[in-house]
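User: tokens in, sequence out, please.
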């Protein structure tokens, strides 16, 4: 696993999405982390120091795993860039066309009015 800065991470994430357009998947996970071991965190708690938590983001396509860490100051800029990348690469998700209920009912009536109904014998 490679820990990258946020901008190279976004560039590599874009290339992962492009590699997996025809076949494959990309998994992105986000989690809160202090990037310190449990022993170091417990030591900070006993000393009364505040623990600075960051957002750890990991992405994998099954072959390659990348990760980055984003602080509270940079999360808005990172989130905006991440959202742009997701919108650009989610082409498979298309909106379905919705039929109005009134139009659908009128169409059904018109189709049914011209045809004769069979009689029960």
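Assistant: Sequence out:
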């Amino acid at each position: 696993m490679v820990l990258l800065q946020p901008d190279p991470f976004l560039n590599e994430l874009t290339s992962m999405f492009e590699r997996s357009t025809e076949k494959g998947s990309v998994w992105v996970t986000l989690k809160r982390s202090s990037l310190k071991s449990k022993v170091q965190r417990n030591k900070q708690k006993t000393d009364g120091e505040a623990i600075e938590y960051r957002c750890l983001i990991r992405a994998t396509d099954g072959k390659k795993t990348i990760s980055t860490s984003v602080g509270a100051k940079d999360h808005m800029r990172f989130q905006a860039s991440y959202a742009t990348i997701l919108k650009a690469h989610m082409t498979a998700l298309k909106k379905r066309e919705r039929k109005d209920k009134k139009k659908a009912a009128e169409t059904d009536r018109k189709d049914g009015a011209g045809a004769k109904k069979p009689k029960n014998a």
